[in-house]
Each structure stands twice: as structure tokens, then as C-alpha cells.
Automatic annotation (TrEMBL):
Biological source species: Methylobacterium terricola
Secreted in keyword set: no
E.C. number(s) listed in UniProt: 1.14.13.149
Keywords (A to Z) from UniProt: Oxidoreductase
Lineage: Bacteria, Pseudomonadati, Pseudomonadota, Alphaproteobacteria, Hyphomicrobiales
Protein name: 1,2-phenylacetyl-CoA epoxidase subunit A
InterPro entries: Aromatic_CoA_ox/epox (IPR052703), Ferritin-like (IPR012347), Ferritin-like_SF (IPR009078), PaaA (IPR011881), PaaA_PaaC (IPR007814)
Gene designation per UniProt: paaA
Length: 338
């Protein structure tokens, strides 16, 4: 499945002894047999760590990903557009929650995962560090960002870890609605006035390359891919998914009558693929290092939202404690009456 040699670091923890080696071999045999791994099953610590890393990064991406779109809820051009955008952003909150729950089954609490994000110790997708300057950006995010997310996440429905794979099924169904609402916004703009079409073109110009970066570094530089493929967490490499996305998306852009901001984009008849130009990996590295156009703003918004929600968490905990006390008192009373 992997088309390029992967320069991957083996993240498997050192195997302690023959018993541990036998366990690891049995674990790998289950994976090879396409069995699902469930939370209470034995798993290598490195498998647990890899999944916790990927699932929590994914959860953080959904949550931070609400911010660029949330920016347009109050400025959506019609009531229908506003309702659809609100629903989409709420879906993303839901995806974040399923994903935090899936990550928790691996033994790290949600509070700790939040702390990692808020302290700047956790990654979230690079794409959410770009600004949404016009309404067309909402169309471009749905069409391109959700389109890329679906391409990446459909194979995750077959991930070896049960809770993650199951969460992905519903997430992908919802992402598919998101992608359609985005494409429909683009279609409306492209069939509108010349100014509206120019807005759609400008959004494509700004979002195209960052969307290609969403799939992660090229295979030769992807440190986790090799091991994640062996564990059937990843079913396709970063470059393979990127190519699938380009192949699916270019005809959609052509239908819109838009031009991709890549002079090297050309159809390779023999291979049956759209070939694209060089990606600016330096830009990707800068965004990951916290120097993208909106990194600081996004983190500040998340920290402020978390602080502003402190009273809700406290109230929910107090309410839960009160219900638990009442339930215990009721159980005591019933026991005494019996
Ligand atoms: N941004 O060795 P690899 C969405 C990091 S959800 C930031 O190739 P891996 C829904 C990577 O973490 C979008 N960091 O890593 C939505 C690693 O760093 P680490 C999120 C990135 O894990 C739509 C290092 O580079 N989707 O869009 C990125 O095997 C609209 C080396 O990379 C997911 O998270 C990046 N783009 O492959 C919401 C899907 N790429 O951890 C709102 C699940 C790589 O060693 C609106 N995740 N890095 O410090 C995955 O499939 C994988 O984690 C990859 C990366 C493919 C993202």
C-alpha cells in the first residue's frame, strides 16, 4: 500500500522479555487478522501512546476548527445559511466530544488532554491557523477542508482501535453533509455576480495549499506512518491520501469554473492522476511551530472560552454531586425501610 520507502522511527517500546515478546506477537497477529482492539485488551504502550496522540490531536482539531467558522455565524448572508452553519459548528463540537471520549478509553483523562492543548503542548490541525476573511471562506472550508477530512477519515473507520473506528463512522456521515454545504455555497457564488465568483476564486487561492498540507508531511518525512500502518491505524500514507484528494477535487473545481493556484497542476493520462506542484513545507513547519497567521489568536480564544466556561463545569459538578447524594440517601432510606 505504501508507495514510497518510509523513513519511520520505530516507536515500539523495548520488549522486556520472552513473555512480553509473545504478548506483542499475539497482539500483532490480532491486528494482522483484522481483529478490533478494545479498551480492556492488552496493547503495547507505544500503541496506546500513538493512538492517544492521534485521537487527541484530532479532537483538538475539531474544537479549534469551530473558531474560524464561528467567526461567520453572525454574518451568514441568509437565515438558511446561518442555520446550516450553526448546525455544522455544533457537529464539530460533537466530534470533539466523541473523540475525547475515545481518547479517554486509552487512559488519559479529558482534563489532562485539555490542559495539554491549553498549555500549548498538543498539536491540532495546521489548517485552522488560517483566517476566514470572507463568506466564501465558509464555502471553501466545507468543500476543501471537510473534503480533505473525509478523505483522511473514511479509512479511519477501519482503524484497528474499536472506539476510534466506531466514532469515525458517524463523524464521516456528518462531514459529508458539511462538504456538500460548502460546495453548494461555492456553486452559488460561482453562478452569482462577477464579484461573488471572484470571492470564491480568492478563497480557493488561499485555502488550496494549506489543505494539501493537512495530510501531513511527505511520506519520506512522516515519522509515525510506518508503525501506524503496521498497527493498521493508518491504512494509506499521507501522500496517497493527498493524491486521492487532489484527484477527487480538481474536477469539482473545474465544474465550478475556478482555477487552482498551481501552474504545475496537470493531468497525467498514463498514471490517471492529477500531478501537482511543490508544496511549501517551510510554511507547514512554521504553522506547526506556532507561527501561522492565526495560531496565537486561536489559542487565546480557546483559553478565554475555557476560562469563561469554568462556572458551567463547576455547576455541572455540583449538580452531579447533589444527584449522587440524593440517590445515596434514597438507597439508604429504602434499605432501612426493608
Ligand atoms: N497539522 O508522522 P506524521 C477536520 C504532525 S479534522 C498539524 O505523518 P501522523 C474536521 C503530526 O501530528 C482535521 N500537525 O504523523 C473539521 C506529527 O507530530 P507529533 C484533523 C500535523 O500522526 C473540518 C508530525 O507532524 N484530522 O478537519 C499535521 O502519522 C472543518 C509528523 O507527522 C485528524 O487529526 C497537520 N496537518 O499523521 C473541523 C485526522 N500533519 O504528533 C472543523 C487524524 C502532521 O509527532 C472544520 N489524524 N502533523 O508531534 C491523522 O490521520 C494523522 O494524525 C495525520 C498525521 C495524517 C494528520
Amino acid at each position: 500500500m505504501y508507495t514510497q520507502a518510509l523513513n519511520a522511527r520505530d516507536t515500539t517500546a523495548p520488549v522486556a522479555g520472552p513473555e512480553e515478546a509473545a504478548r506483542a506477537a499475539r497482539f500483532q497477529a490480532r491486528i494482522d487478522a483484522e481483529e478490533r482492539i478494545e479498551p480492556n485488551d492488552w496493547m503495547p504502550e507505544a500503541y496506546r501512546r500513538t493512538l492517544t496522540r492521534q485521537i487527541s490531536q484530532h479532537a483538538h482539531s475539531e474544537i479549534v476548527g469551530m473558531l474560524p467558522e464561528g467567526n461567520w455565524i453572525t454574518r451568514a448572508p441568509t437565515l438558511k445559511r446561518k442555520a446550516a452553519l450553526l448546525a455544522k459548528v455544533q457537529d464539530e463540537a460533537g466530534h470533539g466530544l466523541y473523540l475525547y471520549s475515545a481518547a479517554e478509553t486509552l487512559g488519559t483523562s479529558r482534563e489532562e488532554l485539555f490542559d495539554q492543548l491549553l498549555a500549548g503542548r498538543a498539536k491540532y490541525s495546521s489548517i485552522f491557523n488560517y483566517p476566514t476573511l470572507t463568506w466564501a471562506d465558509i464555502g471553501a472550508i466545507g468543500w476543501l477542508v471537510d473534503g480533505a477530512a473525509i478523505m483522511n477519515q473514511i479509512p479511519l473507520c477501519r482503524c484497528s482501535y474499536g472506539p476510534y473506528a466506531r466514532a469515525m463512522i458517524r463523524v464521516c456521515k456528518e462531514e459529508s453533509f458539511h462538504q456538500r454545504q460548502g460546495y453548494e455555497i461555492m456553486l452559488t457564488l460561482c453562478r452569482g455576480t462577477p464579484e461573488q465568483k471572484a470571492m470564491a476564486q480568492d478563497a480557493l487561492n488561499r485555502w488550496w495549499w494549506p489543505c494539501l498540507m493537512m495530510f501531513g508531511p511527505p511520506d519520506a518525512e512522516s515519522q509515525h506512518s510506518d508503525q501506524s500502518a503496521k498497527w493498521k491505524i493508518k491504512r494509506f500514507s499521507n501522500d496517497e491520501l493527498r493524491q486521492k484528494f487532489v484527484d477527487a477535487t480538481v474536477p469539482q473545481g473545474q465544474y465550478l469554473g475556478l482555477t487552482f493556484p498551481d501552474p504545475d497542476l496537470a493531468y497525467d493520462e498514463a498514471a490517471g492522476h492529477w500531478r501537482y506542484g511543490a508544496i511549501d513545507w517551510e510554511e507547514f513547519k512554521q504553522v506547526l511551530a506556532g507561527n501561522g497567521p492565526c495560531n496565537r489568536q486561536r489559542m487565546k480564544q480557546r483559553r478565554d472560552a475555557h476560562a469563561a466556561g469554568a462556572w458551567v463545569r463547576e455547576a455541572a459538578m455540583a449538580h452531579a454531586a447533589k444527584r449522587a447524594r440524593r440517590a445515596a440517601a434514597k438507597a439508604d432510606a429504602l434499605q432501612q425501610a426493608a
